[in-house]
């Protein structure tokens, strides 16, 4: 059975100036009525190259505790490397449909990898205004090139180059996040998988939508991984929940957006918070983003670190294999 892609639905919808009912969110989710308009959140911006490491650790710990989200600049990923990653991703989504379908996620496959539209069990049968491409980019032993586009021809090189820089950034962040909890610099990375930590890239493609007031690119969620490192294109759309209200997040060119995910919240016993966020869509322009999810191996047990648990601060979360956590979250089963 052929799956209907949002890109095709968008083309038809724009000509009719309406969207199918399954994309229309309930009133308490619709961006028009739930966004705080005229107010853009100034989320913490952290200079990762600041020579005062102690200051950086404190800023990251504060942002992770209060926001679960921050932007990093001076991260040493050259702008041309980011531009190349974005260019080849955009070129893939602009290919004829039959060429993209070659990389479609196989039916009944448990892996997330591949080109697709539906990701998880939909609440109230509602659909998100997005198509995506998932594939692992690290470690090399887990890469399945079946899901890496061969067109454009420079796709592989651009992704490998970006991965090499990104891994250095991720290691630095995990070190600082660990120190911010009063732990040794290696303890967080070790507990979430060490060198077996898996890097899963997702390209989100949000085509223009005639009713951006009613639809969402991605519904409200926290990321189920450890943390997410994301670069968007220049079309705004990321929103963060603060005190039960939704705010737009300011776009900063070449900044990396860092989301604290569920596994770091669990590991920190709630000191760091996974950020509740969602994505809106645009009437005129295509929004794209390139999140990389850092995931523990599926049999890695994640729970509050023993040093962060005592009589006065008991464990707030169960220890669980990451694979079991993932299954429950995607199928909306209570943890």
Automatic annotation (TrEMBL):
The entry's keywords: Dioxygenase, Flavonoid biosynthesis, Iron, Metal-binding, Oxidoreductase, Vitamin C
SUPFAM superfamilies listed in its UniProt record: Clavaminate synthase-like
Domain Fe2OG dioxygenase: 196-296
Cofactor: L-ascorbate
InterPro entries recorded: DIOX_N, IPNS-like_FE2OG_OXY, IPNS-like_sf, Oxoglu/Fe-dep_dioxygenase_dom, Plant_2OG-oxidoreductases
Listed GO MF terms: dioxygenase activity; L-ascorbic acid binding; metal ion binding
Gene Ontology BP terms: flavonoid biosynthetic process; pigment biosynthetic process
Family, per entry: Belongs to the iron/ascorbate-dependent oxidoreductase family.
Protein name per its UniProtKB record: Fe2OG dioxygenase domain-containing protein
Native organism taxonomy: Eukaryota, Viridiplantae, Streptophyta, Embryophyta, Tracheophyta
């Amino acid at each position: 059975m052929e799956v209907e892609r949002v890109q095709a639905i968008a083309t038809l919808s724009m000509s009719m100036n309406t969207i199918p009912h399954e994309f229309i969110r309930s009133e308490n989710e619709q961006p028009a009525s739930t966004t705080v308009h005229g107010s853009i959140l100034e989320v913490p911006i952290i200079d990762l190259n600041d020579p005062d490491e102690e200051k950086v650790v404190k800023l990251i710990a504060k942002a992770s505790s209060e926001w679960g989200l921050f932007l990093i600049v001076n991260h040493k990923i050259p702008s041309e490397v980011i531009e190349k990653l974005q260019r080849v991703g955009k070129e893939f989504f602009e290919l004829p449909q039959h060429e993209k379908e070659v990389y479609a996620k196989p039916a009944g496959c448990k892996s997330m990898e591949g080109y697709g539209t539906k990701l998880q069990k939909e609440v109230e049968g509602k659909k998100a205004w997005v198509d995506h491409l998932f594939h692992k980019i690290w470690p090399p032993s887990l890469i399945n090139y079946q899901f890496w586009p061969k067109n454009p021809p420079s796709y592989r090189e651009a992704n490998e180059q970006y991965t090499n820089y990104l891994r250095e950034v991720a290691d630095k962040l995990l070190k600082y996040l660990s120190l911010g909890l009063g732990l040794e610099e290696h303890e967080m990375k070790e507990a979430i998988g060490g060198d077996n930590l898996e890097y899963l890239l997702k390209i989100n493609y949000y085509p223009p939508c005639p009713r951006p007031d009613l639809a969402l690119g991605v519904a409200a969620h926290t990321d189920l991984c450890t943390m997410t490192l994301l670069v968007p294109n220049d079309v705004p759309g990321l929103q963060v929940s603060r005190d039960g209200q939704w705010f737009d997040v300011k776009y900063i060119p070449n900044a990396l957006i860092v989301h604290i995910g569920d596994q770091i919240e669990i590991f920190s016993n709630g000191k760091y918070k996974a950020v509740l966020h969602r994505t809106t869509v645009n009437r005129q322009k295509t929004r794209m983003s390139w999140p990389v999810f850092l995931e523990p191996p599926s049999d890695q047990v994640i729970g509050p670190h023993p040093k962060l648990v005592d009589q006065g601060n008991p464990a707030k979360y169960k220890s669980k294999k990451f694979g079991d956590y993932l299954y429950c979250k995607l199928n909306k089963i209570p943890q």
